[in-house]
């Protein structure tokens, strides 16, 4: 194997790494979720929001901006991006609507693609270094079996950690700076159609690399400026098409609530991440700052602190500065505004209100610890496999630690038991709603701030074209919603109903309609857990 050409070694390691990623996907999910007709596995948590958001979006006619959905979040509407329905795939399958049923799901396919690319780029990242093929395969296994990826299943859209590995590949490759910039720009433009959190991450790498090119005089300022203008225009226009700017006042308070902690690398946070290390003290709302590396990697890190001839410069070379500094900036951002080690405050920054409003859009800033996790794993692995130890010793120790890693993080990749079938809806309730609503267009709930089950109402929107004001979205105009809630209450109390709307409350609040109980111009009915009223049809 040592005599094999580098290209052959890469092909073999890439194929094996990708197949192992497929195996992990199968072990964890089974291939059931690849079937677009299988939707029952999505019947919970954020997955339901992702699926139904895409379902409703694909069911409505095209409008402009294309991603705006006026059936949900009535009366202001929303964007399909705010249901985290993976814009690039939602648009693609809406275009394919003549041969694609909007009730189908594509989220399983997205997960499968992410796992395959995670395996491939793990192998590609190691192509640069000359090492035995067995070591390359084991190192790639450590990289794609990352706890920060496996822990991210709750947010399907954000499983694209292969983008981080792809960026590392670009930065560390031997290709020219212009080609690197081209690939970075492509990844940035692609990320715009995935998720804003990923886009911000890529933007940091993109600008740092561009600054490095300017500093080294590898690009003229005017061309760098043209590149930036082009990227900004594409990003703005794409987000406009997706509908991110449709809602005003989406700045979200609470920046730092979901930050990371300096203990994140060795703190599994929950009992569902490590079989050996119990969760260490961290407030429960810090789950977005999950950065646990796994016991195998942690053990491999220990010898680094006791090496006599420890030369950190060999990895943090000048030519890697822009990569390391980009990762550091993102890591620092993940810790803000209060940098803590456990519950001990090391440093706190008091930002002006307008800065907090901007950062509040990315209030789950703990997610930006991910690149640092991958960089640490890469660095630790390289320090081991490129050392002067014998090949047999490297393989045996690394194999043992890989076994420890797999054993430790087993809760993160063990089989999730999904039932086969389609999401079911309360058909009896659906029929009653359709009969009662009739030719009305809007189904309006009070109070809008109440957290109620929205599945049947989003289904009514997708299937029958009704608008609804219930549901969960990643961002919304909270100021408008509070004002609108008072408007709805006044409408119900005064009986000044819109002729195209049905108003409903929980049955326990039916007293709100007391002013219209004896009015023949109105009709009311109990439907499931709700009490609904409307103007009598002409």
3D architecture notes:
- This protein is an alpha/beta fold and 538 residues long.
- It is built from 19 helices and nine strands.
- A five-stranded mixed sheet has the order 6-5-7-9-8, covered by helices on one side. Strands 1-2 form a two-stranded antiparallel sheet.
- Helix 7 runs antiparallel to helix 8 and helix 7 (162-172) runs parallel beside helix 9 (196-215).
- The longest helix is centred in the N-terminal third of the chain and has 24 residues, at 6-29.
Write the layout of secondary structure elements.
Elements: H1 6-29, H2 45-59, E1 68-69, E2 78-79, H3 87-95, H4 107-125, H5 133-144, H6 147-150, H7 162-172, H8 177-191, H9 196-215, H10 221-242, H11 295-301, H12 321-335, E3 338-341, E4 344-348, H13 353-359, H14 370-385, H15 391-408, H16 410-413, H17 427-437, E5 442-445, H18 455-464, E6 467-468, H19 478-494, E7 501-506, E8 522-527, E9 530-535
Parallel strand pairs: 5-6, 5-7
Antiparallel strand pairs: 1-2, 3-4, 7-9, 8-9
Characteristics:
9 strands; elongated; five-stranded mixed sheet; 538 residues; two-stranded antiparallel ribbon
């Amino acid at each position: 194997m040592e005599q094999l050409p580098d290209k052959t070694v890469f092909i073999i390691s890439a194929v094996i790494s990708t197949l192992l990623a497929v195996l992990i996907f199968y072990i964890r999910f089974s291939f059931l979720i690849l079937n677009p007709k299988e939707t029952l596995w999505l019947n919970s948590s954020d997955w339901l929001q992702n699926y139904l958001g895409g379902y409703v979006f694909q069911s409505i006619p095209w409008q402009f901006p294309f991603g705006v959905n006026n059936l949900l979040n009535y009366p202001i509407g929303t964007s399909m991006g705010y249901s985290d329905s993976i814009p690039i795939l939602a648009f693609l399958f809406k275009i394919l609507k003549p041969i694609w049923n909007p009730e189908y799901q594509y989220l399983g396919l997205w997960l499968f693609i992410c796992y395959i690319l995670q395996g491939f780029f793990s192998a590609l990242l190691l192509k640069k270094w000359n090492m035995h093929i067995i070591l390359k395969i084991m190192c790639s296994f450590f990289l794609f079996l990352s706890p920060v990826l496996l822990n991210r299943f709750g947010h399907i859209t954000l499983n694209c950690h292969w983008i981080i590995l792809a960026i590392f590949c670009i930065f560390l490759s031997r290709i020219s700076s212009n080609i690197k910039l081209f690939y970075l720009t492509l990844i940035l433009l692609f990320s715009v159609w995935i998720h804003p959190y990923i886009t911000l991450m890529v933007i940091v790498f993109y600008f740092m690399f561009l600054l490095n090119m300017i500093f080294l005089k590898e690009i003229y300022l005017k061309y760098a400026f043209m590149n930036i203008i082009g990227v900004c225009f594409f990003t703005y226009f794409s987000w406009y098409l997706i509908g991110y700017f449709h809602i005003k006042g989406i700045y979200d308070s609470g920046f730092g609530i979901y930050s990371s902690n300096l203990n994140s690398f060795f703190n599994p946070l929950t009992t569902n991440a490590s079989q050996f290390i119990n969760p260490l003290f961290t407030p429960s709302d810090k789950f977005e700052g999950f950065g646990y590396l796994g016991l195998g990697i942690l053990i491999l890190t220990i010898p680094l602190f006791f090496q006599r001839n420890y030369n950190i410069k060999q990895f943090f070379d000048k030519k890697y500065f822009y990569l390391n500094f980009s990762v550091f900036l993102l890591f620092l951002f993940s810790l803000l505004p209060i940098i803590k080690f456990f519950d001990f405050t090391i440093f706190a920054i008091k930002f002006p209100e307008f800065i907090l409003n901007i950062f509040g859009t990315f209030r789950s800033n703990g997610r930006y610890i991910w690149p640092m996790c991958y960089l640490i794993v890469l660095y630790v692995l390289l320090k081991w496999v490129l050392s002067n130890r014998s090949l047999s010793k490297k393989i045996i120790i690394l194999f043992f630690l890989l076994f420890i890693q797999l054993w430790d993080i087993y809760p993160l990749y063990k089989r999730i038991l999904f039932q086969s079938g389609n999401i079911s809806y309360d058909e009896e309730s659906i029929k009653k709603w359709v009969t009662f609503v009739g030719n009305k267009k809007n189904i309006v709930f009070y109070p809008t701030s109440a957290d109620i089950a929205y599945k049947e109402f989003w289904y009514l929107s997708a299937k029958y074209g009704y608008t609804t004001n219930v549901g969960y979205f990643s961002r919304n105009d909270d100021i408008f919603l509070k004002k609108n809630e008072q408007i709805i209450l006044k409408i119900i109390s005064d009986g000044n109903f819109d002729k195209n709307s049905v108003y409903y409350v929980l049955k326990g609040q039916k007293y709100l309609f007391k002013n219209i109980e004896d009015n023949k111009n109105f009709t009311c009915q109990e439907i499931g857990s709700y009490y609904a009223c409307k103007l009598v049809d002409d």
